[in-house]
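Collaboration report, partner site 2.

Our partner group contributed sequences for two proteins of shared interest, and the home lab folded both. The records are reproduced in the order in which they were received, starting with the first partner submission.
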Amino acid sequence: MSFEDRIETLKTRHQSLEAEVKVETQRPHPDTVTLNKLKREKLRVKDEIARLSHA
């Protein structure tokens, strides 16, 4: 898998996590533990995208 393919895969994952965060926040009683896990994973993916983009 090339760097470009890896970055695109990560961008897709980031978008998916964003959608999951949105769904969770729109629930009547959002699960804060789940929400925090999703946000941490989203940030980790974003950091990896940035790291690979500058490599």
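Second partner submission, folded after the first:
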Amino acid sequence: MFKEEYPNELPMESLAKPAMGSLATSPVAMAPAGESPLAIRQRDRWFARARAAMPWGVSSNFRYWGDDETMIIARGKGAYIWDVDGKRYLDYRLGFGPVILGHAYEAVNRAVREALDDGNTFAFTNVYEIRAAERIRRLTGVDKVRFTNSGSESTMHALRIARAYTNRERFIKFEGAYHGSHDHVMWSTSDSPVETLGSRRSPIPVAATSGIPADLRKLVITLPFNDFDMLARTVRDRGHEIAAILVEPIMGNLGALMPAPGWLEFIRQLCDEHGIVMIMDEVKTGFRIAPGGAQQFFGVRADLVTYAKAIGNGFPVGAIAGKEEFMMTIEPGAVSHGGTYCGNVLAAVACDATLRVMEEEPVFETINARGTRLMAGIHQILDRYGVPHRLSGTPAMFGIFIGKKDSAAPLLDYRSASRYVDDALWAAIWQGLYARGILPDPDYEEPWFLCYALSEADVDQTLEAFEDAVKAAI
């Protein structure tokens, strides 16, 4: 299994070096990090235009940081982005994870430019999506693939397939997990206050937003992540009603919280015993933590798998994949799956080109080497300054939990993580990083993401800035 090659322990070592000529070895010379060459903020002018044209000036609520702080980005290259005032940031958000190779990666952009000369959307199967689907099958070992346009679409259709396959309607999801923005899955996410979730033995599904029909609550069963007893009891009592268990193998919206040993295997066993469809949501882990994603990393095969994000290096593409008997439930005239732009040329070519780079270059070796150094360095800095903390995840996608106090209790789920975290101290550290041109997400629940373009010098810069930020914060 891939996790045996890159175990979740510190420190880890890898002798892999980036291929010559790759972005991983090419510095980007621009304005020094943390400096802005303009006295008048172009950002304010651009945001005024954005606010006039779009609600709150954004196309996604996650991008709104307030009227005075919402960032406006001008461009990105490699591991960097630049805002409209010319300030450069080392980007550890990477579009919430899609940019696995680096911004504006030439091999992907070139393939897309060339293909677009032949058209983009045909209302027929095209040669590009066939090639991309074949590459997904080769890397992951799945039997069949259907393309979508996003992670939300992927989980939405996967649930429909599971319900059609089992002739059941309810499904299990885990507290703190985010599976997209459709109504069926927006329950008890990481935006839900812990005190609203009810008793651990009798959790209450909490809608993440207004506008979700209350009647959908009866279709979702929310449980704590990594709780073997609760899951076993629920499936024993209600298994005949449950179509699917929808699980992120690593909690992508909870600091890359890892599954307890045997957790995914336990879900696999319960699904087999009770005729439940196991859906592994790999929108964040797919083609990021291993060439074959979490299925390869953990050595557990799901019935259905959902992909997006790193599958196309930032282009809008997703996929549902899985075992033949489950995927063939999508029968024309019987079980619907479709979309005008599913498998369009732009998305399919970006997917194929991204995965081709993964097959031909040391993408994962390089990212794991950089991430291992970064995780180890952050751990050492926090230890040196006596800051309680936990690191979780893998070198390509990891989270930092800054604690209120030292505790030996494990972080197993959303409830325990929320009780542990010192939000104020993390916010102060983040402000220090941001001021120094280092850009992870301000929310500890969103992991740090790494790309192939990140260099050793970038890691050095990040660790130097992290130490300065911690020193200033405490």
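Feedback sent to the partner group on the second submission included the following. Residues 170 and 218 are 8 Å apart (CA to CA). The domain at 2-103+362-473 is CATH 3.90.1150.10 (Aspartate Aminotransferase, domain 1).
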